[in-house]
Design brief:
This is XRE family transcriptional regulator. By secondary structure, this protein is mainly α. It has seven helices and no strands. It is globular and about 50 Å long. The model has no long low-confidence stretch (mean pLDDT 81).
Length: 107
């Protein structure tokens, strides 16, 4: 099932391409949807430093939750649509069973 908002439909990719994680598709789609000129303009719109966009493009930095939320706020695309554009197909995010448990050695 592919997200069906008009903005995302304009950037629909092949099934094979959609299965591969590629944050460049997300960044390029945001630039196109928001009618921006380049990565520097996207960085200004997202209120992040330009090197953040560069590091994401070169897959040196993942698209974190806070940035994904900021992308949602400025583009009005759903988180699901943003994740689809990036190639993230997980239906649920899982937290480790040990996450948020106190460290036994600290006691």
């Amino acid at each position: 099932m592919k997200p069906d908002s008009p903005e995302v439909l304009a950037h629909v990719m092949s099934d094979e391409e959609a299965l591969n994680y590629n944050p460049n598709r997300l960044l390029d789609a945001l630039i196109d949807i928001m009618h921006l000129k380049n990565d520097a303009a996207l960085a200004r719109a997202l209120e992040v430093a330009p090197p953040v966009i560069s590091k994401i493009r070169h897959q040196k930095l993942p698209v974190g939750a806070s940035l994904l939320i900021r992308m949602h706020e400025v583009s009005e695309l759903s988180i699901r649509d943003l994740r689809y554009l990036m190639g993230d197909r997980r239906r649920k995010f899982r937290i480790s069973p040990t996450h948020f448990k106190p460290d036994a050695s600290a006691a």
